[in-house]
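User: Fold this; C-alpha cells only.

Assistant: Input:
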Amino acid sequence: MTDAPAVRSWQPGDEPGGRRFARVAEGGDGLRLENGATLPGVTVAYETWGTLDVARSNAVLVLHALTGDSHAAGPAGPGHPTPGWWDPLIGPGAAIDTDRWFVVCPNVLGGCQGTTGPSSPAPDGTPWGSRFPSVTIRDQVAAEALLADHLGIDRWAAVVGGSMGGMRVLEWCIGHPDRVARAAVLAVGVAATAEEIALCSVQCRAVRLDPDFQGGDYYGTGRAPVAGMVLAREIGQISYRTEAEFDHRFGRRPQGEEDPSSGGRYAIESYLEYQGHKLARRFDPNSYLVLSEAMNSHDVGRGRGGVTAALARVTAEVGVAGIDTDRLYPLALQQDLAKLLPGRRPCAVITSEFGHDGFLLEVDQAGAAVAVALGA
C-alpha cells in the first residue's frame, strides 16, 4: 500500500489554483496556542472573490467545515480537484454577492490545503507529523485574525460558516467582538456535546489503529492509514445524513448484482465505501485527527464564566440557522443558541432530508438564511 491515495495535502510547488498565501507568524514570534505552545512560521492559504472597497468595509469571511478548504467557490481545475463547496452561494447576485462583498475564505489552521498543518514542513524541513501540536477552535481563529491583519481588514462586514466553520464564527463574535459587524452561524451549537465528542473520538481511533498510521509519522514511508481513514469517514458520513434518506435511496437493496448472503455488499455499504475512498484521495489523515480534536474542544464558555456570560460579549447581529433533520447537531442546539444571543433573533429552520449536510446541499434555503444575516 502506498501513501499516495491518502496523503493528498497541498505542498509548495504544487499548482496553487486560486490560492494566495500569507505568512502570518514568524520564528520566535510564532502563534501562541491556547495550550501554551508556540507554533512558528504559520502560513495561511486563502482565496478571495470580489473587490475590497477603499474603506476596507465590505469584507466577508467565509469559514469551511471539517473537510473543506479555501476553495469555497469556483470550478474544479488545476489546484482544485473539486468545485467550490459553497459555489452556488458565492458570486455575482448570489446570497453572498461578490458585486457587493469582498469574500475571503481561508484554509483552517491544522488543515492540509496550504495552511500550516501536520503535513507541512516543520522548522527542520521535514513534515510535522506527530510533532504537530494540538490546536483548538480559538487557535484557528487566532490565525484567521492574523490573516485579517495581513489583509488590512480591521472589521469584517460579516463572518459566515456552518458546522466547524460555525464554531469559528462564534469564536470570532465572542473573542473579537469589535471586529465583526454581522454573522451567520449554521448547524452547530455553543459547545461540543458528549455524542459529538464520541463520534469524533471513534473516528480518530479508527485512523490511529490502522497499522500504517505509524504514530502519525507515515510521510515518505510508502505506507499510510488509508483503511483507517476510509473507516473514519464512513462513520462520519452516517452522522451527516439521515435514516430516512438512507432508506429512500438504498433500503435493503444489494449493490448491483452482488449477493449479500454470499459475501456481497448492500448498496448502502458501497455508498459508504465510496465516500470513504473519495475523502482519502484528497485529505491528510493527520489533519483529520487534528481538526476532529479541535472540534471536540469547542466550548464558547470555557474560561469565560460559562456560555451565557460568553455570549453576552457578542455585539454583532447574528443570524442562526439549523436543519430540522440534523442528528449530529440537532436543531434544538441552534434554537438554544439563538435564545442566548443578544437580540434573541429567531432561529431559521432549513427543511431537508439530508440531515447535517443540508447546510451544504440545500443551497436555496441556506443561501436565504445567509442573505438575511448579511442584511440583504
